[in-house]
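TOKENISED FOLD:
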Amino acid sequence: MQFHLSARQLIVRLLGWLTLSSFVGYVIGYIWPTITLAALSLLIWHYFHLNKLVTWLWNSKSLSPPIAEGHWGRIYDGLYHLIRKHRNKQKSLNERIRLFRDGAEALPDAALVLSNDLTILWGNKKAQKLIGIRWPGDVGQRIDNLIRFPEFSQYLETGNFESPCNVPSPINGELQLELRLMAYGSDQILFLARDISKVHRLEEMRRDFVANVSHELKTPLTVVRGYVEMIQSVENDFDPHWLKAFQTIEGQVSRMDRLVEQLLILSRVEVNTELDSKQLVDMPQLIEQLLEDSTWLNIDKQHQISVDIDPSIGIIGIDTELKSACSNLLSNAIAYTPEKGQIKVIWQYVGDKAKFSVTDNGAGIKAVDVTRLTERFYRVDKSRSRDTGGSGLGLAIVKHVVSHHQAELKVNSTLGKGSEFAIYFPAEAIQKLSS
């Protein structure tokens, strides 16, 4: 029940009290002493209740307010109502916090709430098991003081948290963790660490299997190719169907040989064994060499290949990987562009980045296929790729090379008009070549 008190009511009650005291004073013959005594009694009464209010608010542990009549009773009831309302809100808030913590504790991942300066505000129990961070013991510590890996430090410095950072666990080197940071509210950061040890081991097993099988296939393929070439070199005449059979065998062996070679390259690129051997790469010379080497690929189709190369732009990178990536883009354009098509190779500045691109006027690629082009063994047209000898590994190799050089691969394609495959290298990887 609400209580409304206006200034008019206060004035009317005060005047009524003074009028009553004046009348009593008039009757007994002491008007002003009576009025003074009435005013003092009213003041003492209010100070008495004011003192009770202060004592109740600051010293009393009881939720129930003092008992009083009149306005002070209304004041006590209003304060009691506000306190109950506040406590109910506090209880509801505590329940929400409990539900949040229960949900956070139920997560299979380690979760930390960080401030904008990367200090720890809160963490769940999984954070202690995976990364050794305890709450509330480590509150106020910076996360990079507790997770000391160069990869993670570089990850924080770049400020690009769209992709995760993979590091070993600080407390168990056998665990491989995937770390992610994302905005949480207006001034906080949510840190998640997921155990990907099983996935990491499966990926290593897959890479080892592919590498070992590729190496093992090399020898039998070489033997088969040698015997086929030896038979074909014999001057004895063979029946036409035998000649056709030997040609088919040679073609399939060559195709298998190319596939094995691509698998070996992909295995080397995935392992990242050469990341510490980056050096200045003369990209204009590398591209010119690739164009010369691709001349024999273009004998049948007679494409018109134009170039626009800036001779002053070099890249700090891995020579073999860059050569493989550029070669794949160029050979794909030659293989999938119809006869007498147009291909343009560009190596130029675009803003503060360096761009290598191969553009063709071939059949183009559907938008739904563009996002899957870098998957292993994915081919837009399986029958066409089979005819051209495609393995579905070229763009997977390009993707890994681009990742190693902190570059970006962009594919622009319009069905029926052609495609552009472009690699953008960051400014920090570019170095001027001496003329």
